[in-house]
Automatic annotation (TrEMBL):
It is found in: Endoplasmic reticulum membrane. The keyword Acyltransferase applies. The lineage of its organism: Eukaryota, Metazoa, Chordata, Craniata, Vertebrata. Belongs to the 1-acyl-sn-glycerol-3-phosphate acyltransferase family. It comes from the Eukaryota. This is GPAT3 acyltransferase. It is a multi-pass membrane protein. GO terms for cellular component: endoplasmic reticulum membrane. SUPFAM superfamilies: Glycerol-3-phosphate (1)-acyltransferase.
Amino acid sequence: MQTSQHVLFERSEIKDRHLVRKKIREHIADKAKLPILIFPEGTCINNTSVMMFKKGSFEVGGTIHPVAIKYDPRFGDAFWNSTKHSMMTYAFNVLTSWAIVCNVWYLPPMVKEEEEDAVHFANRVKAVIAARAGMSVLPWDGGLKRKKVKESFKEEQQKKYCHLV
């Protein structure tokens, strides 16, 4: 990992977030360095939707080169539901699959617009990726896979539903 210039951090540590932001800004300012590959969802889900992007990747400036990735589950499922299967079961399933087929689309570069904040920029990039891969856009992050849904979020969704009805 040291030879490929990884930027490691502890997500729960506030000081690490600021240090990572600084390191990423320095990295993209150095034109001799390779681009950074970032997975802004922070986790994977079941190949049907694109979850909320973490805004930190979109606060540092630079050009974003979006990539849409979608697995074709016909020959083998690359998705690991860690609440249902152990790592060993998942590894066995992947290794004994006929094939793991993945569609990858390299999308046109995107830059943050002047009046746009990091959250709106992240949402715009997310929408482009989701549209290309034929996935739906989700307004929440991957933490819902392992945490209980906040009451305030439930109430907000109920209000939106009431306005539709």
